[in-house]
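Input (structure):
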């Protein structure tokens, strides 16, 4: 912090309004889940900040996993080189526009007694820290010739003649892909002039996704998260061949004693994150379970036991990206709910043979006919397709687009 000029110590006066601080302790794990190092971070207390006085704008874009999968799939199809890098203590590089005064850690630095810290750079914990870092990084990248994607502000692209560099950024973690290894090296050297970075030529993990690069293909898994779910599951697990039983009778009116729903919701929430990462085969089952997380009965736990048993048997399943045709294919389907329930929709979006986006959920409106349910599903899935098309347009010049629907009336 002293090296980067995070704060300036000034004399304290009675009229000064300050915010507090505290320490956060954590452990950093390696790819195998073993402790790599212990971490301690001094953070500001954002609950003491006053909107409009020491914090104003706080928005910063959040990276999407769809954009990451789209970038990796494109890189695999186009035979691009893929690297990753982390910016060490990224927030501490970011200038702060507002005047923020913080109480000093006198127990750690006794010389700061009777002084306050005027923060010149963003400190972890501040409400605007994420935005300050985003704006600072945006200025650096624009100075290097990058432009942000209009539909995902965390995806940046650089074009020069036939050379392209694409960067996906999640806070201080980034993935970079390019058809020119020379341009990647040139970018790395330029970035090192502004930041202290940790560069990896062989990306192994990003956002909980474990990546393995082989001969012409990329395998993406979530073994650690899967194992954590299985180890924390509070009931006995038996392996199953499908996510749900062949016959589903679980409704909100099922008889039985109401049970504590908190452990159930914890498991379903973890499974939902697993689905968002790379398990489309669990999408419908997890969505079905989430609808019954209130008034929990023993029958609901039995269905969840079946789902976790399927997860146990398929814990090594993931996504494999292979070179192929650069084409966006969308599959859309719906199940009519009839008189008692709302209809269910589901879709799968693939780039080549690689799934990049999927979903399964109940429709928000009542469909009177099967045709209407299919049309609503097409409308919902097309919104995601348009977003993927706009992102892919900045990464690839030529690609096909095909939509598959099994209802002739809706088509």
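Output (sequence):
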């Amino acid at each position: 912090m002293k090296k980067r000029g995070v704060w300036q110590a000034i004399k304290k006066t009675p009229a000064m309004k300050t915010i507090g601080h505290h320490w956060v302790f954590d452990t950093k794990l390696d790819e195998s889940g073993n402790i790599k190092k212990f971490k301690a971070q001094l953070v500001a207390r954002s609950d003491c900040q006053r909107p409009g006085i020491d914090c104003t704008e706080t928005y910063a874009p959040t990276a999407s996993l769809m954009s990451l999968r789209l970038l990796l799939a494109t890189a695999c199809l186009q035979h691009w080189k893929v690297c990753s890098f982390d910016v060490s203590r990224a927030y501490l590089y970011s200038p702060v526009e507002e005047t923020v005064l913080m109480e000093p850690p006198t127990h750690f630095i006794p010389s700061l007694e009777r002084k306050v810290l005027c923060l010149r750079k963003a400190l972890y914990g501040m409400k605007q820290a994420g935005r300050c870092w985003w704006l600072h990084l945006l200025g650096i990248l624009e100075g290097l010739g990058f432009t942000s994607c209009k539909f995902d502000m965390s995806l940046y692209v650089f074009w020069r003649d036939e050379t392209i560099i694409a960067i996906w950024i999640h806070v201080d973690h980034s993935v970079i892909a390019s058809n020119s290894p020379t341009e990647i090296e040139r970018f790395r050297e330029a970035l090192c002039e502004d930041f202290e970075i940790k560069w990896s030529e062989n990306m192994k993990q990003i956002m909980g996704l474990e990546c393995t690069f082989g001969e012409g293909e990329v395998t993406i898994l979530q073994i650690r998260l899967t194992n954590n779910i299985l180890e924390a599951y509070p009931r006995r697990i038996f392996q199953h061949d499908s996510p749900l039983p062949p016959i589903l009778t679980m409704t909100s009116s099922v008889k039985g004693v109401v049970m504590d729903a908190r452990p159930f919701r914890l498991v379903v929430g973890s499974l939902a994150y697993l689905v968002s990462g790379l398990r489309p085969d669990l999408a419908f089952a997890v969505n079905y379970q989430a609808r019954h997380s209130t008034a929990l009965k023993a029958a609901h736990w039995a269905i969840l036991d079946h789902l976790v048993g399927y997860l146990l048997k398929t814990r090594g399943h993931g996504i494999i990206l292979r070179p192929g045709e650069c084409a966006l294919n969308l599959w859309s389907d719906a199940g009519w709910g009839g008189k008692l329930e709302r209809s269910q929709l589901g879709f799968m979006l693939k780039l080549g043979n690689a799934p990049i986006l999927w979903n399964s959920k109940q429709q928000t409106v009542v469909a009177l006919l099967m045709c209407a349910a299919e049309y609503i599903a097409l409308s919902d899935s097309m919104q995601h397709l348009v977003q993927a098309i706009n992102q892919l347009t900045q990464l690839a010049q030529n690609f096909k687009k095909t939509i598959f629907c099994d209802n002739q009336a809706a088509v």
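Notes: The chain is about 30% helix and 30% strand. The chain has three domains: 7-213, 223-313, 324-405.
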